[in-house]
Write a structure and sequence with these properties.
The complex is a heterodimer.
Chain A lengths: L27 E9 L2 H12 L12 E7 L1 H7 L10 H5 L4 H7 L22 E7 L2 H11 L6 E8 L18 E2 L10 E2 L47 E10 L1 H11 L10 H12 L29 H4 L10 H5 L12 H7 L5 E2 L2 E3 L5 H5 L10 E8 L3 H12 L20 E5 L6 E6 L3 E11 L2 H10 L7
Parallel strand pairs in A: 5-6
Antiparallel strand pairs in A: 1-3, 1-4, 2-3, 7-10, 7-13, 8-10, 9-10, 11-12
Helix pairs in contact in A: 1-13, 6-7
Chain B lengths: L39 E9 L5 H12 L16 E9 L2 E2 L5 E2 L2 E9 L7 H13 L1 H7 L13 H11 E2 L3 E4 L6 H25 L4 H13 L16 H42 L9 H9 L6 E9 L4 H20 L12 E9 L4 E9 L2 H10 L2 H8 L8 E2 L3 E2 L4 H11 L5 E4 L6 H14 L6 H9 L2
Antiparallel strand pairs in B: 1-5, 1-6, 2-5, 2-13, 3-4, 7-9, 8-10, 9-10, 11-12
Classes of the chains: A alpha+beta, B alpha+beta.
């Protein structure tokens, strides 16, 4: 393999900006789920859009635009369905039945009941992500970019609401992997670019599978060349987007916490006990401080919540932060085999990182207001969870199945994720001399929709846009 | 007196019944304690299937697989010493030079050897015949050489199974000597203690660790159905230990004796192998999506999963010799090094085996593991790649290795694709305890062993209490 192909020098101007930034400076955002009705027009639209896409080189202050495509969208644009190189999980989709089981999308969360992305809803072909400094700019951006004559139909508009805290009241998005070559920082968090950007070395020092096409199918030379095979590199500088619309039941969360900390005599548990149990479910205090560093109570709000910590040395047994707490399983750091506390454990953790880019929806509500019936205000609340990864199976699905949903995580018996798991689960709170079990957790988070998308590099967007005329304007 | 609590796993979320056992749902019998620790026997029966009967056999197995524990044909739960069992059909195939390979029916079971029966295999097959009876006719009746149903008798069934039984080239058990009954009992013990602590937690929470342990011991002592927990599990008999010691020494002694031949031959062997490694094709062929989806349908219905894969050996005597030696080495290491809940850093495998097929032209691998195939694969890529390379690189299509042990399985995508492509559907799969991970089983055993220790320091007691 030619060395140039494996260089870590990232082609920032070809990489969509979402890989580099969550656009925190652009608080207004919406995600448009689109269906392609007329491939030729949609292709032309995509071609025009390519020039407006925000890349990893920019630091936008007013607006940002990114686009991703579902496998159905690629097919409608004219990409041969048999084309190899894409992730199987992407091609099969999030709702293939083995996937639903592994992801926990069963019962009330089954795709049949989803509002979008399920078998009974309109197929989503395109995901258009729009960001702006304010609502006015966002509305104008949307109007400018999607017009009736573009051959697209709006399946659903996913609105978002900017907040540093998710709806249960906890600061979110604190721990993020840093894409090597785009961001620098704490070594534990610096992850090989190939874990997120296709066409670069991943944590195994290898190239994750990615789609390539025959050079002849790209006569204008739009795509970069894969120097190893001479093929046109459709995957390079791309990634996969996992989007899931999750509902959050704020009343159920704080109601359960209150009930579980109320003693048998009916006296309401004190505020500190409630807060502690809630924090044990999450693994951080509401202000973001991790329990392992602040086991005795929430410290004064720090300017930035601490993320520089590992588990093993301070809390190998979960007596500060329960072994099953949400953040300890979504990102176990150095706590797992083959040797907890070692660099080998960190190396394993690095193979399962997610670059999170989601945003919440629905107006925030304070716990007290939710408990007093305010959560029956008819307002829907939740999170449009987005994560980016190069290997859906090893990253998103692994984390969801092997860590988050797994009742057996880290030697436990009956403890799926206390925050995200299904109703009836147990949270074990490790303590001396005896562990305490908190049984019967109800469901706090539901699934309302979801899909996998391919986030192409800008040149790949241009290539895909140019396919449609060849497809004969079906 | 409280009734014996059964180990009844919660139901899985799967939309349809699946190839996962229900566990020994019946009450655990309380027979006299074993006098010696049972060894685990890896039973394998391989028989050719008559081609016209192949489709019908698959349908029969599919039906059986929907309820492996209590179906009418082979109700595996009625074989209380069976940890795991599977039945699978290998489709017809052909060797590289075009010679046809008949379809096979493969039966595999991991069974505790009966305490007082020699030879153990005979006794285990008898039990299978006695429990399944005519059910076996419906399955093995599709095989060449099986007596016609009207004439099948106990003796003929037994003779057929015995004639088609093959021994494993290598067999691994997570913890040698731990019986099904012990595993189920120790889970029952853990649940009882845990519920005791749930009830008494408020009052015991302020006590010293050793006081809590004393209270737990008193509780267990007061429960007749847990009386067994106050004694250690049986240990290997003197005869077994003598046999193990002999086996342990035989290999190094043999190697030493042969060293005048082996030592000079080794560099020549290594160079010859290296030459072949460079020449072997490295095709990296992806499995089809349909194949993968069909396999995935039977996965992730419980914390445990199964895996079966079959592959051709590369041509030539060198590869055959290597595979023979390496599987023997694995078998030796499984018995003497890795029999204690840790396979070189991997703690999620319950049982695994390699069995030669078709006159050593093919090798079948079968395992029972915890978690998803993705996590199982990752354990291989990250932790025991060297071991996999040593054996599987002798198989056709394995990602290219270097000096037998290196590269190969480290090529993540090529390795994962090879496993999926060589994986075959397992029509029937039974586990006696599908809800228990190997970590759970090991932890439960340590909970029990902490009970019968007389004195414990505060530190030891704290460490023990963490397990509950």
């Amino acid at each position: 393999m030619a060395a140039a192909d494996l260089s870590t020098k990232l082609a920032r101007d070809d990489i969509q900006g979402l890989l580099a930034s969550g656009y925190g400076r652009l608080p207004a955002a919406c995600y448009l789920l689109l269906a392609i009705e007329e491939p030729r027009r949609a292709g032309a639209w995509l071609g025009r859009l390519a020039g407006k896409l925000t890349t990893a080189r920019e630091r936008p202050l007013k607006t940002a635009v990114n686009v991703a495509l579902a496998s159905s969208g690629l097919a409608k644009l004219g990409l041969p369905p048999a084309l190899g190189g894409f992730s199987d999980r992407f091609l099969d989709g999030m709702t293939a039945s083995p996937r639903s089981r592994a992801l926990g999308d069963v019962g009330a969360d089954a795709p049949e009941r989803w509002r979008w992305g399920g078998p009974t809803t309109t197929t989503v072909d395109v995901l258009l992500l729009l960001y702006a400094a304010d609502d006015g700019l966002l509305a104008a951006l949307e109007e400018r970019l999607v017009r009736p004559a573009d051959g697209l139909a709006l399946v659903q508009r996913l609105d978002t609401q900017w907040s540093e805290r998710e709806h249960f009241g906890f600061r979110d998005g604190i721990s993020q992997p840093l894409v090597e070559g785009l961001r620098a920082g704490r070594p534990d968090d610096v992850i090989s670019a190939g874990e997120f950007v296709l066409g670069y070395r991943n944590e195994h020092g290898q190239l994750t599978r990615r789609p390539r096409v025959d050079r002849a199918s790209d006569p204008r030379g739009i795509l970069p060349t894969d120097s190893a095979t001479g093929d046109a590199d459709l995957g390079r500088n791309g990634s996969y987007v996992v989007l899931r619309t999750l509902s959050q039941d704020v009343r159920a969360f704080w109601g359960f916490v209150e009930g579980a900390t109320t003693n048998g005599a009916g006296d309401s548990g004190d505020q500190a006990a409630r807060l502690r149990l809630a924090a044990q479910i999450v693994g951080r205090w509401p202000n973001g401080e991790p329990l392992v560093l602040a086991p005795d109570g929430p410290p004064e709000t720090p300017p930035q919540p601490t993320n520089d910590f590992r588990y093993h040395d301070v809390d190998a047994h979960g007596e500060r932060c329960p072994l099953g707490a949400h953040i300890r399983r979504a990102h176990p750091r150095d706590s797992l085999d083959p040797k907890p506390g070692s660099e080998r454990s960190i190396a394993i953790d690095k193979l399962h990182r997610l670059l999170r880019r989601g945003r919440g929806f629905g107006a925030p509500i304070a716990p007290a207001a939710a408990l007093n019936g305010g959560a029956r205000d008819g307002e829907e609340r939740g999170l449009h969870f987005i994560c980016l990864c190069a290997n859906i199976a090893r990253q998103f699905e692994f984390v969801q199945h092997t860590w988050v949903n797994n009742p057996k995580f880290n030697g436990l018996y009956d403890d799926p994720d206390p925050l995200l798991g299904p109703a009836g689960r147990t949270l074990t709170v490790q303590a001396r001399p005896i562990n305490r079990r908190v049984p019967g957790l109800p469901s706090f988070v539901g699934v309302l929709g979801g899909a996998y998308f391919f986030l192409p590099g800008v040149r790949a967007v241009r290539y895909l846009a140019a396919l449609a005329p060849a497809a004969g304007g079906r | 007196m409280a009734h014996v609590r059964t180990v009844q796993p919660p139901s899985t979320n799967g939309p349809e019944p699946v190839a996962a056992g229900r566990g020994a749902a019946a009450e655990i019998p309380a027979p006299a304690p074993d006098r010696r620790a049972a060894r685990q026997l890896a039973i394998t029966v391989v028989a050719d299937v008559r081609r016209p009967r192949l489709a019908g056999l698959k349908r029969t197995l599919q039906a059986l697989g929907a309820d492996p524990a209590t179906n009418a044909m082979v109700p595996f739960a009625a074989l209380p010493r069976t940890h795991f069992a599977r039945l699978l059909v290998l489709d017809p195939d052909a060797t590289a030079d075009g010679a046809p390979i008949e379809p096979h029916l493969v039966y595999m079971a991991d069974v505790d050897e009966p305490a007082d029966a020699e030879p153990a295999l005979e006794r285990c097959l008898e039990e299978l015949v006695d429990v399944a009876g005519e059910g076996l006719d419906r399955i093995f009746g599709a095989c060449v050489g099986y007596p016609p149903p009207s004439r099948a008798t106990r003796a003929l069934r037994l003779a057929f199974l015995h004639a088609h039984a093959v021994s494993a080239a290598a067999a691994y058990v997570n913890t040698i000597g731990r019986s099904v009954r012990q595993i189920l009992q120790e889970e029952q013990l853990r649940i009882a203690i845990r519920e005791f602590l749930d009830r008494r937690g408020a009052e015991l929470g302020d006590r010293e660790p050793d006081e809590v342990r004393t209270a737990i011991r008193q509780f267990v002592r007061g429960r007749a159905e847990l009386a067994w927990a106050l004694t250690p599990p049986p240990s290997p008999s003197l005869a077994d230990r003598a046999k193990d010691a002999g086996h342990l020494l035989a290999l190094p002694a043999g190697l030493l004796a042969l060293s005048p031949v082996i030592v000079p031959a080794l560099p020549l062997y290594a160079l010859a192998l290296r030459r072949q490694e460079k020449r072997d094709p490295d095709p990296h062929i992806s499995p089809t999506r349909d194949h993968v989806l069909a396999l995935a349908e039977s996965e992730d219905h419980a914390p445990q999963n199964q895996f079966s894969a079959v592959g051709f050996l590369k041509a030539g005597r060198l590869r055959r010799l290597t595979a023979e030696v390496v599987t023997r080495g694995i078998d030796y290491a499984a018995r003497h090094v890795y029999g204690h809940a840790n396979l070189a850093g991997v703690k999620t495998i319950h049982c695994a085996r390699w069995v030669w097929l078709d006159d050593h032209r093919r090798l079948i691998f079968a395992s029972n593991y915890d978690g998803s195939l993705e996590s199982y694969n990752d354990d291989f890529v990250d932790k025991v790649w060297w071991g996999l390379n040593a054996v599987f690189s002798n198989g056709v299509g394995w990602p290219r290795t270097r000096w037998l042990f290196f590269d190969g399985a480290r090529q993540e995508q090529a390795f994962k694709d090879w496993l999926r492509r060589n994986q075959v559907p397992t029509q029937v799969w039974y586990s006696a305890y599908p809800q228990l991970t190997a970590l759970n089983v090991e932890n439960n055993a340590r909970i029990r062993s902490g009970l019968h220790q007389e004195a414990m320091s505060a530190k030891e007691a704290t460490r023990w209490l963490r397990r509950i």
